[in-house]
Amino acid sequence: MSKWEKIRADFPVFNNCTYFFTNGGGPVSKSYVAKAQELLTAQSELGRGVIPAWDAEVENIRAMLARTVGATPSEIAFITNTAQAMGSLTGMFPKTFEILTMKDDFPTSFVPWIHHGHTVRLVEPEKNGAIPVSLIEQHITPNTRILILSHVMFRSGYRHNLEAIGALCKKHGLILIVDATQSYPINEIDVKACHIDILIFHTYKWAAAGYCSGGMYVSRQLLEKYTPATMGWYNVTYPNPDFDTTQDYTQFTPKKDATVFEPGTPAFVNILLLGEAMRTIETLGIADINAYVHTLISYLHEQAAKHGIEVLSNFEPQHASAIQRLKITPEQFLRLEQHKIMARYKNNMLTIGINFYNNKADIDAIFAALQ
């Protein structure tokens, strides 16, 4: 049995349906559920006595996330979701900093910035959803200071070339903020090689880590220049911390590493469950996951051509992602539902989220139902 078949067997969702809705949210594994039961049982039996071991494990998981993106542990913060992370960045930069982002991007990329008074300019994608680097460069103005984009566009599935985007930002002196929620950990990302200043990834999709967990990389160089606006008791240091005595806690200094984005007590259970999911990712290997998913993408395209189904996400290989779109009719989608194939369908577009637990038989099931 291959490692892909073994991991698939750990996901009970396939006992109920053919699952292609990872772009909306991934299922969790049996081992994840067992870990959750273990953690909650320990807390029920030990109360706060679990904290020393949990604190140490949180730092192990921080180091694990850092390894996956080529960062150091001190550059990684835990987040609950992308919106929370992006919101924590507003107020960090002067309002004179103009933001450039994508019109086709998820609202998280622009809503908080508009609300906080930044000028936000939007890049309109090409008709097929592609957004070439040259098109982005055309929209840069003398006031543009921050570029925000999703590594993989949630609607079209277009995958940006992060090395080329990073080189563009370096050329124009821009701060680069990347949302990798639709690509982490399917695609390899090296934050240093790509000149990424901030990388945000919510892990309830492709990492299959459940809701309310994720990570944010923030470069040390950026933290030396800018300080977040939101402070709590946990992301500052005190001259003489001793919460058993009354003293002047009005004197504090914001932390100097990425934990400055963690203002309160960690979401221990969520983080520890993220660690359980990431151990699976480390076992599979991100490079192998990427290669495997791309074999399924190629197979999907082959079968679509064979069955006369139009592929709407037919980008060049370097821009292809695990989000694939097919043009089908409402009647065809009804047949998919009748065959218990779960995927998003809107405006005659079927969006297929392919992950490491899918296989060619899943893809065959789509076309068998469509015919």
TrEMBL record:
InterPro entries: Aminotrans_V_dom, PyrdxlP-dep_Trfase, PyrdxlP-dep_Trfase_major, PyrdxlP-dep_Trfase_small. Residues 56-311 form the Aminotransferase class V domain. The keyword Isomerase does not apply. It comes from the Bacteria. Keywords: Aminotransferase, Pyridoxal phosphate, Transferase. One of its GO terms (molecular function) is transaminase activity. It holds the Pfam family Aminotran_5. The keyword Transferase applies. This is Aminotransferase class V-fold PLP-dependent enzyme. It comes from Chitinophaga qingshengii.
